[in-house]
Design a protein that fits this description.
This is UTP--glucose-1-phosphate uridylyltransferase. GO terms for molecular function: UTP:glucose-1-phosphate uridylyltransferase activity. It is an enzyme of class 2 (transferase). The structure is a single chain. The protein contains eleven helices and 13 strands. By secondary structure, it is an alpha/beta fold. It has two domains: 256 residues, Spore Coat Polysaccharide Biosynthesis Protein SpsA, Chain A; 32 residues, no CATH class. The strands form three sheets. It has a nine-stranded mixed β-sheet. A hairpin with a 6-residue loop joins β9 and β10. The relative contact order is 0.16.
Length: 296
């Protein structure tokens, strides 16, 4: 195994239409749906920053201006809060804009996750980079992304995050066929299948929205034909890298057993809101008491 280059760049695809949350997302990006009092996308950006990534690129599309506005300064609002002596809320407002510079590129056409990642090629250049999907909220106490970056540095290939799901649910995910590596806490990915039929999946290990990729993925994506749904699938490009040889080839998996929520799914989104709200110091105990009474 070879040592790769250090990782400083993160790509955050956020161009999706959010149709599962209509009509709430008719005029508001799905990434701006609040999880307690922060939009879902802020948790993702904070995860990248906390993992030491300092160069963030967000892939956006039409009607996504609110994302840029959220991470920008708002002098009028900040001044009003300051004049009112509301330092607590001022700190919260400034927290988003103090996360660091975020760059933005428009995808233009909704051609799939693979195409969204390809839109980052000029910005990323010849460096390994992380991809964080805005729908996946990973608990801030977890070190998944840091672990994946360490595996990439160790192997020099690409790394995906995997979770175990009930076999009946695997058709909603990309699925990995894996092999254990002796002495390591990560696995080798032999092949990937996008949303296999139940009964035809090679395992119950599902791909979730965290990747650490070798830049060779861009060359593969340029040649990848549209796949399932008529879109350019990142899974197809990773399948090519998994089967390839030479620099940048090889795909590895980190099996994640921590807390993760799919904020693009209504039930999982509600679980995220309730779980994180119940852990808040200022009202968590009151919420849990109310929940007990409501459930009973």
């Amino acid at each position: 195994m070879t040592m790769g280059k250090s990782i400083t760049k993160a790509v955050i695809p956020a161009a999706g239409l959010g149709t599962r949350f209509l009509p709430a997302t008719k005029a508001m990006p799905k990434e701006m749906l609040p999880v307690v009092d922060r939009p879902a996308i802020q948790y993702v950006v904070e995860e990248a920053v906390n993992a030491g990534l300092t160069d963030l690129l967000m892939i956006t599309g039409r009607n996504k201006r609110a994302l840029e506005d959220h991470f920008d300064r708002e002098p009028g609002l900040e001044r009003a809060l300051e004049l009112n002596g509301d330092q607590g809320r001022l700190d919260l407002v400034q927290q988003a804009s103090d996360l660091g510079p975020i760059h933005y590129v428009r995808q233009g056409e909704p051609k799939g996750l693979g195409h969204a990642v390809l839109c980052a090629s000029q910005h990323v250049g010849d460096e390994p980079f992380a991809v964080l999907l805005g729908d996946d909220l990973i608990d801030e106490a977890e070190t998944l992304l840091t672990n994946m970056m360490e595996v990439q540095l160790k192997t020099g290939g690409s790394v995906i995050a995997l979770i175990e799901v009930d076999p009946s649910e695997i058709s909603a995910y990309g699925c990995a066929d894996i092999a254990a590596i002796e002495g390591e806490d990560f696995v080798r990915v032999n092949s990937l299948v996008e949303k296999p039929a139940v009964g035809e999946a090679p395992s119950n290990l599902a791909v979730i929205g965290r990747y650490v990729l070798h830049p060779s993925v861009f060359g593969v994506l340029e040649k990848t034909e549209p796949g399932r749904g008529g879109e350019i699938q990142l899974t197809d490009a990773l399948q090519t890298l998994a089967a390839g040889e030479g620099e940048g080839s090889g795909v590895y998996g980190v099996v994640f057993k921590g807390r993760r929520y799919d904020t693009g799914d209504k039930l999982s989104y509600l679980k995220a809101v309730i779980t994180l709200a119940s852990e808040r110091v200022e009202f968590g105990e009151d919420l849990k008491s109310w929940l007990k009474a409501f459930v009973s």
